[in-house]
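Task: complex structure prediction.
Instruction: return structure tokens for all chains below.
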Amino acid sequence: MHQFISRRAALATTAAAVTVSFAGGRARAADLPAVTLDGAEATIRDADIGALSKGFKGNILTPADADYDAARKIWNAMFERRPALILKCTSVADVKTAVAFARDHNLLTAVKCGGHSISGQSVCERGLVIDLTGLNTVEVDAKSRTVRVGGGCLLGDVDAAAQAVGLASTFGVVSHTGVGGLTLGGGMGRLQRQFGLAVDNVLEVQVVTADGKLVTANKDQNQDLYWGVRGGGGNFGVVTSFKFQLHPFDFPITTTSFNYGADEAKQVLAKYFDYVNEAPDQLWLTVGLGRNAKGEAGVNVSGSYMGAPDKADATLLKLGTFGTVKGTRTGSMAYTALQKVADVGGRHGRFHYAKSGMLGAVEGPTRTKLIDATVDYFMDQPQNNSHALFLLMGGAVNRVSADATAYPHRAAMHNVDVGTDSDTREGSDAYVQWGRKYWDNIDPFTGGGFYINSAMDDGEKRVRGNFGGNLEKLVAVKTKYDPGNMFRLNANIKPKTKS
Ligand SMILES: Cc1cc2nc3c(=O)[nH]c(=O)nc-3n(C[C@H](O)[C@H](O)[C@H](O)COP(=O)(O)OP(=O)(O)OC[C@H]3O[C@@H](n4cnc5c(N)ncnc54)[C@H](O)[C@@H]3O)c2cc1C
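Output:
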């Protein structure tokens, strides 16, 4: 009895658990309907899975398995998809086996780390999911101030291990986000203005490429791949491990938040755009339009001083001078605690729509037009759960040249993000329509650049435009490492086809 059948037979608890016949005394699973890379109908035969299970040590999940439903879920409930097969990898060898299986059967393939892809790229209908959540080791080397992280790790595990020895690097603001997707797209976080983006701290990656080989990429080996994975998303293969630079960082963090009324929204945004040029690198700053539980619109200015607490007030108090403060909150907490404060707000299983864009310096008449477009349309929104958020970039992020890594937005001063979210699917179409229209007002100010990790429904043209001067090199790297575009569920860069 091969491994897959025995585990599957044990786990199958639903009527859908189709053990259709017996051969030689063992239960046989049904063949699975699937789709190819190009969307054609395909079948994964029971015998194929039997052969796969001989070399694959992790769990092989089909729709008949009890663990399947939990494993196919991703963060954004908008994407209710049922893959034919989920391969839960436990090692690099498993990843190689999974990639070989995908290639040999020409299957539509998704790669999943933390499952936070806002645009649903880490799960696919009737395709194969290569699930990396079992590759979750974190090894800190305090002496060299580095950390090696499995390709399926979550941010909170890395923050905790690094902080245990007084070190940190830039990772995102919700601890259950995956290191894989966040880093490959750029990786913004509270330390970015001091230490750069997550990609700026990547020293090495190990990647299983489409041909099934494990490739190491760093500044000395496979430099083209090393360049591409730092901002080019999951286009080039499955990253089984990342090595990051860490930095000494051991402070309690002072945070503050000021609420202003809707009547002052335009003034507050103008003051924010005035203020940013004097912001120190230690400041993490966001300005968001939203509504409170009573449905009243307002603006929130939130800052965290990512440095010595005795210097915090001089910076943070200025954020309370943008208008008439209606409410304020100040606190001090450990960095690891701060990195979790948004975990509940950013919880799994809700319905989200988002668009994102990059803005340069916002000045002169353009500033007035952008502020008008942002505020006026927001006030007409149909529901409470919408936002527009400006995040201050700059600092160390902008001290890297635009072609040094694949991440192109080194001149951007702000990331602007608009979104809606809801606990139910009901009405979500209306929210999406509203989000799209809202974005149509703001997009002209962005020049077409956006953060590939927080955008949805962006077509090929927009993705290509986004990479600007880095596109040609990205196409070359893609063509070398993934000529058949196996890894296409991402901000996809198409390889050159043979003429
Ligand atoms: C609640 C929430 C908070 C967020 N906060 C931040 C933030 O603070 N800063 C920020 O920069 N972004 C943030 N984001 C955006 C985030 O960077 C992206 O959603 C990112 O794609 C999530 O990575 P993941 O591994 O969890 O996602 P997944 O859905 O698992 O993967 C996303 C994409 O990356 C690919 N991928 C993932 N891992 C690998 C790998 N090891 N090898 C190859 N390809 C891989 C997948 O195939 C997919 O295309 C946030 C998103 C959410 C939902």
